[in-house]
Amino acid sequence: MVGAIHHVDLAVSDLERSITFYAFVLSLLGFRRQVEKETPIWVSEHNEIALIPARTPRDHDRYTPGLHHLAFAAASRDDVDAFYERIKERGIPILDPPADYPEYATPYYAVFFSDPDGLKLELVFSPLGQDASKEKP
């Protein structure tokens, strides 16, 4: 696990609004909130995601230096589809509905959506560390 990402801190413009958003989305992805912490932190088996108040208000532009997008791994295509239905029902902005993206990898099946500040998020089924070109979608 050397080199694995331990945690990501996301600066947000409206902490309460983002807590509501991430509490819903991250719970669908298997994260649980550490309520004893002052900073909103969600943990999974190997990762932490924390929210911190932004110091400088600005619109998010993923094409300026900084984070372009954050992708979460799904166990299957069905998981991507089920997740999509849940976030769609919740009114979360969908950037691209579930689809195959062979230009990224084979298989690569993903849905793209955004958080309240416009940060691009993704749930993707694409097995890492395998010869994915031999897998069937």
Question: What would you note in describing this structure?
Answer:
- With 137 residues, the chain is of the alpha/beta class.
- It has a single domain, classed as 2,3-Dihydroxybiphenyl 1,2-Dioxygenase, domain 1.
- The chain is 20% helix and 30% strand.
- It has 2 helices and 8 strands.
- The strands form 2 sheets. A 4-stranded mixed beta sheet has the order 1-4-3-2, with helices on one face. A 4-stranded mixed beta sheet has the order 5-8-7-6, with helices on one face.
- The radius of gyration is 15 Å and the shape is globular.
- It starts with 6 loop residues before the first strand and ends in a 12-residue tail after the last strand.
- 17% of the residues are buried.
- Residues 130-137 have low confidence and may be disordered.
What's the short story on this structure?
The chain has one domain (7-134): 2,3-Dihydroxybiphenyl 1,2-Dioxygenase, domain 1 (Roll). It is built from two helices and eight strands; from the N terminus they run βαββββαβββ.
Task: Please give a handful of descriptors for the protein shown.
single chain, 137 residues, alpha/beta, 2,3-Dihydroxybiphenyl 1,2-Dioxygenase, domain 1, 4-stranded mixed beta sheet, 8 strands, globular, disordered C terminus
Q: Can you tell me the CATH class?
A: Alpha Beta
Percent of residues in beta strands: 25-35%
- Tell me the number of helical segments per DSSP (H or I, 4 or more residues long): 2
Low-confidence stretches: 130-137
